Every structure is written in C-alpha cells, then in structure tokens.
Amino acid sequence: MQATNIENIVVDEANERTYVVLAPRVLSDGEIYKAIRREILRRGGKTLGRGETLTFTLGVNEAVP
After folding, report:
1. Which of 43, 54, 55, 63 gives 20 to 30 Å between its CA and that of 17?
2. DSSP for 13-60, written as a single string
C-alpha cells in the first residue's frame, strides 16, 4: 500500500509564484516555509521566475519538526 501525500500549497501573489509541498500530513505555515526555503537552497539558491511553480515531496524522514 502506497502512502498518500497531501498537497500543501502556497501562492506568492506578489511574485506570481506557486509552491506545492507534498507531505504525508498537513503542515503548519512555519513548516511549509521552512521546507520551501530548504528546497530552494538545495537547488542552488536560485529563486523561481514569474509564473513558475515549484513542486517537491517531503519524505517521512524529511518531515519538518
């Protein structure tokens, strides 16, 4: 049986960016922003362009405390 992931979506209207964090549970705002910050740094620190969407999955062991 495969674990279900929940979409935690953040829309940055000012910069026209969307972040989709797939996680095994609903994350709090702080957890989502921390996960997004870590993912951007992991990808070399380059921010998204206007209108782009960043989608990534947090594993069970990666869940933000």
Report:
1. 63
2. TTTTEEEEEEESSPPPHHHHHHHHHHHHHHTTSPPPPTT-EEEEE--G
